[in-house]
Amino acid sequence: MRDDKGNIVRIEKGKQKGKPQPDTSLRDTENVPLSEDVERYFKREVLPHAPDAWIDHDKTKVGYEIPFNRHFYVFEPPRELAQIDADLKQCTDRILTMIAGLSA
User: Fold this and answer.
1) Residue 28 domain-assigned?
2) Distances (CA, A) of 51 to 12, 26, 46, 55, 56
3) What DSSP designation does 24 have?
4) Staple 69 to which of 6, 47, 61, 73, CB 3.0 to 4.6 Å?
5) What is the pLDDT of residues 88-101, one digit of tens each?
6) Residue 58 is assigned to a structural domain of this protein
7) pLDDT by residue (tens digit) across 34-55?
8) Which structural domain, as residue segments, surrounds residue 68?
């Protein structure tokens, strides 16, 4: 965070004392390939766009992302429009019959 004069606001208490106070509205995450060094990626991809950004190593996680839809999804085309229209007409007719029975 920055104060009204543009100076970095630092944390005053606790174990984080002296560190810059983060602006939580600017918090972001990055997915870094496992084969790449995190610091090198950060310098190349993040710092040119946000020069005062930093990595909170306490929140860094290592893992894999498995996109299940990409690997297991099988596209099923929708039914023909005429078939959908016929089903809707059948439902509508049944509802109208039930309404007619209530008003009789």
Assistant:
1) yes
2) 23, 13, 8, 12, 15
3) G
4) 73
5) 999 999 999 999 98
6) yes
7) 899 999 999 999 999 988 888 8
8) 24-103
